[in-house]
Write a structure and sequence with these properties.
It contains 21 helices and 13 strands. The protein has helices at 2-85, 99-103, 106-114, 147-169, 182-199, 204-209, 218-236, 241-267, 276-282, 307-327, 331-351, 354-371, 376-395, 397-403, 557-568, 585-588, 594-598, 611-619, 621-642, 649-671, 682-705, and strands spanning 122-125, 140-143, 423-426, 429-434, 437-446, 449-456, 465-467, 476-479, 489-497, 503-510, 518-521, 531-533, 539-540. Strand 3 and strand 4 (429-434) form a beta hairpin.
């Protein structure tokens, strides 16, 4: 009984436990379902929240993008407005490059725009006082135009050399690889002969420092090549030669304008440098004192020394302005460049130089040929027109003489008008002619009384009237015009301190107020030989009548340059290998033409007035040949580059720059026929040459890539 009741309790307990478990399971399931439902609800709520957040973010981002786009559009619009308001001469393209990029162009800007502007009174040593054709007291001179330009140009050249050395040692050696070409090898040989001629030069101080109306020392000559190479390298690595050319042109324009405006006023006899304010600009204090004077120039010399260099300088720039005018798109800029071209042409023609006019014509001819080089038909027409024009010019005497003055002249025979044609010292006296008759004169002293032995050609004595010495008058003999010459003659006692410090006795032959006066003495040395004084007060024995003269050119050719050329030609045979040295033509040329100088031609011939004779005499024939080969190679390179088909706006701009610079180079080379190299305008030439080479080289490189 007891067991059965226990069994019933256990069964009932199991039943109750089962019910409880079932209830728990249901409860757990309900809880789980509730939790899942809650989680699902939370998930749905979170998704909804996330969607709401994402939508909000998208809206914010869209608003931000719209605001950014609007800001960029506003910036672009403002930039465009700024560009429209920017003056045409401040091109906004320059803002795309860092300032450091354009700093390397400063030397070129100085050479083109500001070195030609420089003027300053500077004292210098002539280094010529030991030559008999220079006055003994002429050891120093004052220069206004040349020395200051030479000094600053040398500084600029050294600066460019320093920059190139930085390029070389700072990982940019590849820029020098473009110099591995025949033209630069030829330049290297030319530089070698400049150095060799300098080593064997007789006047080293003059060679190294320059002087007397010529400061083209050997350093200046070498600096021409340095500046040319620097310009070539700098522009040839540019990604836009036209952009950089515009920067250089605009930066150098103020200096150029000052030069041209000064020349413009001088054409109308309004010379700034002959006013007190003008003197203040270039003269040191001692030359600004009351009564002080300084000689500057005549005609339109502006800041460039004389009309020959003025004319060539402006003719070179005219070629640049002409092409840049054709490249202008902005109407205002076109007007400005047209005005610059007109001003430049006016200054060039107003200077009145044969060289400038001839160079300008040569530049225009080359310009026309280069523009037409791509079309054989057009080129043939252009060449035909040029030939007809040249024939027409030379067929009309007035035009021919305007272009080349004195081209049809014969030898001037200026000596026919001289009153004295020779002075010939001998052991027994000095023989000379006067007004077409021959005479001889000797002297002696008897108890300090002057005795004169004056004879005519047949040895007959000519007696004069003796006058004793007065307080301010030495003893002298007077001869009437019946006895000698057209105006008579006076022979007086002469005493002066000689070069050795002793007192030289002699006689002074001439007449007061006349330039045909010279002293005679037999006490210059111990030989007893007679000497006479040249126009510079030095005792000499050679009157210069034996100077070699080729008589090839008419003396009046190119305003008298024919005379200098005729006397330069005999010098060429002495310089078949090396020259006399940079700037030393003055010492090599026969300056002892004393008869000419006594008759009024007192100027020294500092240059041969021919660029190619100058190259030959100063640096030697090999140097001249190297330069001629180099110039030919330059033109070949330009023509080959222009023959390439254009590939775009940049290529077209490069081609025009090459044409402009080549025309400017031609101006200098043609003007060099009656002209020469000088520090006032040669740096401009070498800079344009380097720029033209860069533009031409760029076109050739493009051809090779194609």
């Amino acid at each position: 009984m007891a067991k059965s009741s226990r069994k019933k309790k256990k069964a009932q307990q199991k039943k109750n436990n089962a019910q409880q478990n079932s209830s728990k399971a249901k409860s757990t399931a309900a809880v789980n379902e509730a939790e899942e439902a809650a989680k699902a609800a939370e998930t749905t709520s979170a998704d909804a929240s996330n969607n709401t957040t994402n939508n909000s973010q998208d809206k914010v981002e869209n608003n931000t993008f719209q605001q950014t786009t609007e800001t960029n559009n506003t910036y672009t619009t403002r930039k465009e407005e700024r560009e429209k308001k920017t003056p045409f001469f401040l091109n906004v393209e320059f803002a795309k490059k860092p300032k450091e990029y354009f700093m390397t162009y400063i030397p070129i800007i100085l050479v083109l725009g500001y070195i030609p502007l420089l003027m300053r009174t500077l004292t210098y040593s002539t280094f010529l006082e030991d030559y008999e054709w220079v006055a003994a007291d002429n050891a120093t001179q004052v220069d206004v135009f040349l020395k200051i330009k030479a000094i600053v140009f040398l500084v600029v050249a050294v600066f460019t050399l320093f920059i190139m050395l930085i390029w070389f040692f700072n990982g940019k050696r590849n820029v020098f690889k473009r110099m591995k070409s025949v033209p630069f090898y030829v330049i290297g040989i030319a530089v070698l002969f400049v150095l060799i001629s300098g080593i064997f030069a007789s006047n080293k101080p003059l060679l190294l420092l320059g002087g007397f109306e010529n400061f083209e020392s050997i350093f200046v000559t070498l600096s021409y090549f340095i500046v040319m190479i620097y310009t070539f390298i700098l522009f040839s690595q540019s990604d836009s030669i036209y952009r950089d050319m515009q920067f250089v042109y605009r930066a150098s324009l103020p200096g150029f304008l000052i030069i041209s405006v000064i020349g413009l006023f001088q054409v109308f006899n309004l010379d700034l440098f002959k006013t007190e304010f003008g003197k203040f600009l270039f003269a040191s204090s001692e030359y600004r004192q009351p009564g002080a004077s300084i000689t500057v120039g005549t005609g339109e010399y502006t800041t460039l020394h004389n009309i020959d260099y003025v004319s060539t300088f402006f003719a070179m720039w005219a070629m640049i302005f002409l092409i840049m005018f054709t490249m202008s798109k902005n109407p205002k800029e076109k007007i400005v460049r047209a005005a610059l071209l007109i001003l430049t042409l006016f200054d060039m023609f107003a200077a009145g130089s044969d060289g400038g006019r001839l160079g300008f014509i040569g530049g225009i001819i080359v310009l026309a040929i280069l523009i037409s080089v791509k079309s054989k038909k057009r080129l043939a027409i252009v060449v035909g027109v040029i030939v007809v024009a040249i024939v027409a010019v030379f067929a009309v005497p007035q035009l021919r003489n305007y272009v080349v003055s004195g081209i049809g002249a014969t030898d001037s025979n200026a000596e026919a008008s001289y009153r004295i044609h020779h002075i010939t010292p001998k052991s027994d006296g000095v023989y000379f002619d006067l007004d077409g008759k021959e005479y001889s004169v000797a002297y002696s002293y008897d108890n300090n009384t002057l005795k004169v032995d004056l004879k005519n050609a047949d040895g007959s004595p000519i007696n004069g009237t003796y006058h004793e010495a007065a307080s301010k008058q030495p003893q002298y003999f007077e001869y009437s015009k019946k006895d000698i010459g057209k105006n008579g003659l006076t022979i007086s006692e002469y005493r002066a301190q000689g070069q050795d410090g002793k007192i030289d006795h002699g006689i002074m032959v001439g007449k007061q107020g006349e330039s045909l006066t010279f002293a005679v003495s037999n006490e210059v040395d111990k030989s007893g030989e007679y000497y006479f004084t040249n126009p510079y007060g030095r005792f000499v024995q050679n009157d210069g009548t034996d100077i070699a003269n080729a008589h090839v050119f008419p003396d009046k050719l190119f305003s008298g340059r024919g005379t200098i050329w005729n006397k330069t030609l005999p010098l060429l045979k002495d310089h078949l290998l090396i020259g006399c040295g940079s700037g030393l033509f003055i010492t090599d040329f026969p300056q002892n033409n004393y008869i000419d100088k006594m008759n009024g031609n007192t100027n020294y011939d500092v240059k041969p007035h021919n660029l190619y004779m100058q190259y030959w005499v100063e640096e030697g024939l090999p140097f001249l040949l190297c330069m001629l080969v180099f110039f030919v190679l330059y033109y070949v390179m330009i023509i080959k580059g222009l023959a390439v088909k254009e590939g775009g706006i940049t290529d077209a701009a490069n081609r025009r720059i090459a044409i402009a610079c080549t025309a400017a180079v031609t101006v200098f080379l043609v003007a060099g026929i009656p002209g020469d190299s000088m520090i006032v305008h040669s740096p401009t030439f070498w800079t344009f040459l380097g720029l033209g080479m860069a533009a031409g080289w760029t076109e050739l490189r493009r051809k090779k890539k194609a």
